[in-house]
Amino acid sequence: MSDTKQQLYTACQTYVQQRIGTCQAAIHTAQESANSETKSSAGDKYETGRAMAQNERDRNAVQLHEAKKLLAELERIDPDKPCDAVRPGALVRTSLGQFYVGISAGKLAIDGAEYFAVSAAAPIAAALSGKRAGEEATFNGKKIRIEAVE
């Protein structure tokens, strides 16, 4: 396996772990906020503050669940397994750019080169799925030549 492919896999892991950490911290902060609300003479103000904190906690819990799903998706990939066709775990060099098929983590820079980490369900990955080096695919009306698959 190429060093670049391993670095991309590691960058995706870091991305997901940061999202999980951010969500967990936000949940903790929202819970503390809800717990610190005290009854006041304003009456409804107490209930409104607690409800807002609970809504924030719930919103972050949904984001945490999504981040954990991304982690599970990433963990299904064997970064050491060579790829001769586009599938999850493949590093694909095309006439349109370089893609790492794993999770949707956006643009990643490795050794000064730009790569796009995309989910296997992303439209570009779906268009390239199963293709090999030297083949072409069409995406958004454009022909894309697959130069290499690792």
From TrEMBL:
Superkingdom to which the source organism belongs: Bacteria
Compositionally skewed regions (Polar residues) per UniProt: 30-41
According to the record, the residues making up region (Disordered) are 30-59
Descriptive protein name = 3-oxoacyl-ACP synthase
State the organism named in the record: Solirubrum puertoriconensis
